[in-house]
UniProtKB/TrEMBL annotation:
Pathway: Lipid metabolism; fatty acid beta-oxidation
Localisation: Mitochondrion matrix
Record keywords, A-Z: Acetylation, Fatty acid metabolism, Isomerase, Lipid metabolism, Mitochondrion, Transit peptide
UniProt name for this protein: Enoyl-CoA delta isomerase 1, mitochondrial
Catalytic reaction annotation: (3Z)-dodecenoyl-CoA = (2E)-dodecenoyl-CoA; (3Z)-octenoyl-CoA = (2E)-octenoyl-CoA; (3Z)-decenoyl-CoA = (2E)-decenoyl-CoA; (2E)-tetradecenoyl-CoA = (3Z)-tetradecenoyl-CoA
Known partners and oligomeric status: Homotrimer.
A single GO BP: fatty acid beta-oxidation
InterPro entries linked: ClpP/crotonase-like_dom_sf, Enoyl-CoA_hydra/iso
SUPFAM superfamilies, A to Z: ClpP/crotonase
GO cellular component entries: mitochondrial matrix
Signal peptide bounds: none
Length: 306
C-alpha cells in the first residue's frame, strides 16, 4: 500500500524533508535498508518542458539529464522575463526527478553577458524589485537544487553569466572566451549570494582578489585558479564532459548525494533566505547612486559604439 502511495503521489513526495520522514517511517516499518528503498522508488518520469522561447529544456530519456539552454539573443542578457523562465524551468526539473542538469546557451559566442543592463539603468523600482526577487529565486533554486548541476560555458560569461556558472557544481568552458565577476568595474557592490557562490568555487583569497579587482579571466587563466574545471574545444564536447561529470553520480545514492550537497550549501542559502529584503535594499540604494547610474549609462554607450 505504501508503494502504491509513492507511485501515485510522486510530486507530493518530492520535497527532501518529506522524503526523509517517509524513508524513516517506511524503513522502520519494513526494516529495509535505505539503499533498497531507493530502488523501490517509481521509475523516473522524464518530461518535455512546455515550450518557452527564452529557456529550452531538453531531457534525455535514457540518461535522465536535462540540457537547459538560455535563448535570449543576442547575448542572453538576464532580464526579468529570462529569470522568470529559468525559475519555472528549475521548478519543473525539481518536480520531475531528473538525474542532473546542464546549463548552456544558444548564443554562438556568449554564455550570458550578465544582468541585462537595461534592467539596471534608470530602473523603475517596482519592476526592479520583481527582477531582483526573481534573480534571488533563481539562485536559491539553482545553488540549492536537489539534482547535480553543471555549466557548459560555450562563450563569454561576465558578471551575472559567471555567477550562473559558479552556482552549478561543475564547469566546462570553451577556449578563447572571458569569464569573471566584473561588477566593481561598473561601481556595483557584489551581493552576498554572489560572494557565497564565488567562495564555494575558488579559495577565499582568489575570491577576494577577483571580486575587488573585477577581473575577467581568459578560459586558460580561469582553469588555473579553479574558476572552471575543464576546457573543451566545442560546445558539444563541453556538454559531453558535463554529462561525464554527472554520470559519476549514477553509482551514488541520490538521497545521500542531495542531502550532502544541501548540508554543504545550507549556510549560504539560509544567509540569503534570512535577508532577502535587506539584500534588495542594499543593492537598490547602491544602484540608484547618480555616480553608479552614470557609470552604467557610459558603459552601455561604450558597448553600443564598439
Ligand atoms: C551576479 C550578481 C549580480 C550582481 C550584479 C551583476 C551585474 C551584472 O551582471 S552587470 C552586466 C555586466 N556585463 C558585462 O559587463 C558584459 C557586457 N557585454 C560585453 O562585454 C559583451 O557584450 C560580450 C563580451 C558579452 C559579447 O561581446 P560581443 O559578442 O562583441 O557582443 P556586443 O558587445 O556587440 O553586444 C551585442 C549587443 O548586446 C548588447 N549587450 C551586451 N551586453 C549586454 C548586457 N549585459 N545587457 C544588455 N545589453 C547588452 C550590446 O550593447 C549590443 O547591443 P547593440 O549594439 O544594440 O546590438
Amino acid at each position: 500500500m505504501l508503494l502504491t502511495l509513492f507511485e501515485s503521489h510522486t510530486h507530493f513526495f518530492l520535497s527532501m524533508f518529506q522524503k526523509m520522514i517517509l524513508t524513516k517511517i517506511i524503513s522502520n516499518t519494513l526494516s529495509l535498508h535505505k539503499k533498497q528503498l531507493i530502488e523501490w522508488l517509481p521509475a523516473v518520469r522524464y518530461f518535455s518542458s512546455p515550450t518557452n522561447p527564452l529557456v529550452n529544456v531538453d531531457v534525455n530519456d535514457k540518461s535522465g539529464i536535462a540540457v537547459v539552454t538560455m535563448n535570449r539573443k543576442p547575448v542572453n542578457g538576464l532580464s526579468l522575463e529570462l529569470f522568470e523562465a529559468m525559475s519555472k524551468a528549475l521548478d519543473d526539473l525539481e518536480n520531475n526527478r531528473i538525474r542532473g542538469a546542464i546549463l548552456t546557451s544558444s548564443c554562438p559566442t556568449v554564455f550570458s553577458a550578465g544582468l541585462d543592463l537595461n534592467e539596471l539603468y534608470q530602473p523603475d523600482k517596482k519592476r526592479f524589485k520583481a527582477f531582483w526577487t526573481t534573480f534571488q529565486d533563481v539562485w536559491l533554486k539553482l545553488y540549492g537544487s536537489s539534482f547535480p548541476t553543471a555549466a557548459a560555458i560555450n562563450g563569454h560569461a561576465p558578471a551575472g553569466g559567471c555567477f550562473l556558472a559558479i552556482s552549478c557544481e561543475y564547469r566546462v568552458m570553451c577556449p578563447d572566451y572571458k569569464i569573471g565577476l566584473n561588477e566593481t568595474r561598473l561601481g556595483i557592490i557584489a551581493p552576498i549570494f554572489l560572494r557565497a557562490s564565488m567562495r564555494n568555487t575558488v579559495s577565499n583569497r582568489e575570491a577576494e582578489k577577483a571580486l575587488t579587482l573585477g577581473t575577467l579571466y581568459s578560459t586558460e587563466d580561469a582553469l588555473k585558479i579553479g574558476l572552471i574545471d575543464e576546457i573543451a574545444i566545442y560546445k558539444v564536447k563541453a556538454i559531453e564532459r558535463c554529462e561525464n561529470f554527472l554520470a559519476q553520480f549514477n553509482n551514488v545514492s541520490s538521497i545521500a548525494r542531495s542531502f550532502t550537497k544541501r548540508s554543504l550549501r545550507q549556510k549560504d542559502l539560509e544567509e540569503l533566505e534570512n535577508c532577502r529584503e535587506e539584500d534588495f535594499n542594499i543593492f537598490w540604494s547602491n544602484l540608484i547612486e547618480p555616480s553608479v547610474q552614470k557609470q552604467i549609462g557610459d558603459y552601455m554607450q561604450s558597448l553600443k559604439k564598439k
